[in-house]
Amino acid sequence: MTAAIPPEGSVRIAVRVPSELDVVEEAVDLVARHCLACGLAPDAVRFNLRVALSEALANAIVYGNGSDPQKRVDVRVVVDDEVVEVQVDDEGEGFDPSSVPDPTLPARVDLPSGRGLFLIRQLVDKVSFNDRGNSICMTLRRA
Amino acid sequence: MTAAIPPEGSVRIAVRVPSELDVVEEAVDLVARHCLACGLAPDAVRFNLRVALSEALANAIVYGNGSDPQKRVDVRVVVDDEVVEVQVDDEGEGFDPSSVPDPTLPARVDLPSGRGLFLIRQLVDKVSFNDRGNSICMTLRRA
Amino acid sequence: MTFSVRSDPNDPKGVVAISVDGQLVVSNRNQLKEKVLEALDAGKSKFLIDFTQTGYIDSSGLGVLVSVSKKIREAGGELRLAGLNEDLRMLFELTKLDTLFNISDSPDEALNAF
Amino acid sequence: MTFSVRSDPNDPKGVVAISVDGQLVVSNRNQLKEKVLEALDAGKSKFLIDFTQTGYIDSSGLGVLVSVSKKIREAGGELRLAGLNEDLRMLFELTKLDTLFNISDSPDEALNAF
Ligand SMILES: Nc1ncnc2c1ncn2[C@@H]1O[C@H](COP(=O)(O)OP(=O)(O)O)[C@@H](O)[C@H]1O
Ligand SMILES: Nc1ncnc2c1ncn2[C@@H]1O[C@H](COP(=O)(O)OP(=O)(O)O)[C@@H](O)[C@H]1O
């Protein structure tokens, strides 16, 4: 997903977001509108993609960039005939996603946090991270 | 317009188009939808941008790429608060845009062709080319 | 306004009904918490959160529901959720939070259940 | 269908009215040319091109209008354009093609002018 131009027939969208939680909803709306412009089914865009992207943005802003207004979050979307790939990069140290515990365990289910990554994994078809852990790529199959 | 990520608050869209005239209308529609998703006024998007982009795409496909299906046309759009920049790149040899005669001259006004670049210049706020002449950048001011 | 709070003075049960209009997410979840805490301070104990007008909820929205539910329970009160569409209900099921909350189909059903 | 051709058998003037639905652009302009050439071959000579349902026209669309206008003139016929909205009219003005064509506001006005 790093080439400036995607393969033929696909569309690439890039948005740079400041590290402020207040902009999450607006950024999610913007990306959702672009996905609709690409012809994605409104249902999938309306819910799964919005929630997953909200989670990824909030994590990038809070944990990745420590809400530092100098730091940026980059969102890159590639839509082709088969999938939507949404990549969210922050400027943080990264983390080890495999160390995040399952929030549905009986001992955790009544905790007020810890459900973000879990929800992302449930709502999209594929999740991957770069080695450092400061870039998450979420893939949704179309149709 | 070459950085992969645009400045904060702006949106970048990239589409690769095959060298076929039949896809021009669809590509124009797609870009127009993304411009609307960025919040551009429907009126400006509906007409000036569509016509200018149609011209640039048709020129890139026919003159730039010689309608060679192996060659590609790349469209890159950056929308920020003030302007929309639409860049169309082909794989051709380029040309010298200053050598294109004015199609409104009495001797040329009844010719069936030669109005493409002229229309682009009239319909957008700024037009620039790279040195080689295989990349045109059209800027429209918002509002 | 994302949250509208209604409390019918003629309702003998004194239920505080909070409707979430739009998203319940990281940027506004604290407003919801404040509304509940204010009402608890004012002596209210029965709460209905109505999601009929809600688009989506993120994990911090779910988190605030967990924490207000705990506050209400600690104050001896009762919380009911209602009006979740299929997608929202899925979030509660995926996270097993459906086991933690009293979820009614409609706000009316929830009001009758208090 | 981008072009619909109507020719009223009871019209003593025998006008061929072609309506451009959508865009008149590089990918479909030849269809328009063919419709006109067919009608010329069939002995028709009066043409109305109606842009009431047209979105935009590109330079090759303008070009095909220039060339069919020439063909019609050579065959001793007459071409009128009608139904151009403000944007489309601007294209004709910018390119000075408004000096080359008979442009009426409405299709009816054009029909009466033949
Ligand atoms: N972009 C990120 N950079 C650094 N750490 C992260 C990032 N995203 C998630 N994490 C870590 O993973 C943990 C779990 O995140 P998540 O499942 O979203 O739940 P929550 O945000 O409620 O803690 C976070 O507490 C944080 O330590
Ligand atoms: N991308 C391009 N690559 C090479 N030549 C071009 C390109 N765009 C335009 N031209 C040249 O400029 C000329 C004028 O183009 P234009 O004004 O669009 O009118 P038309 O397409 O009707 O000829 C073309 O005939 C062509 O020679």
How many individual helices of chain A? 3
Ligand list: adenosine-5'-diphosphate
Largest interface: A-B, 25 and 25 residues
**N-C termini distance of chain C:** 27 Å
Q: What's the overall average pLDDT of chain A, rounded?
A: 91
How many strands appear in the DSSP assignment of chain A? 5
Order of helices and strands of chain C: EEEHEEHEHEH
**Global morphology of chain A:** globular
Sheet with most strands of chain C: 5 strands, mixed
Essential attributes:
heterotetramer, A: 143 residues, alpha+beta, five-stranded antiparallel beta sheet, C: 114 residues, alpha/beta, two-stranded parallel ribbon, 4 helices, globular, binds adenosine-5'-diphosphate
Question: Briefly, what is this?
Answer:
The complex is a heterotetramer, with 2 copies of chain A (143 residues) and 2 copies of chain C (114 residues). Chain A is an alpha+beta fold and 143 residues long.
Describe the protein's architecture and organization.
The complex is a heterotetramer, with 2 copies of chain A (143 residues) and 2 copies of chain C (114 residues). A 5-stranded antiparallel sheet of chain A has the order 1-2-3-5-4, covered by helices on one side. Chain A is 31% helix and 24% strand. In chain A, 43% of the residues are buried. Chain A is built from 3 helices and 5 strands; from the N terminus they run βααββαββ. Chain A is globular, with a radius of gyration of 15 Å. Chain C has a 5-stranded mixed sheet with strand order 1-2-4-6-7. In chain C, strand 6 (78-82), helix 3 and strand 7 form a beta-alpha-beta unit. In chain C, helix 1 (29-41) packs parallel to helix 2 (59-74). Chain A binds chain B through residues 2, 4-18, 30, 33-34, 36-38, 72, 74, 76, and chain B through 2, 4-18, 30, 33-34, 36-38, 72, 74, 76. Strand 1 (11-18) of chain A pairs antiparallel with strand 1 (11-18) of chain B, so a sheet runs across the interface.
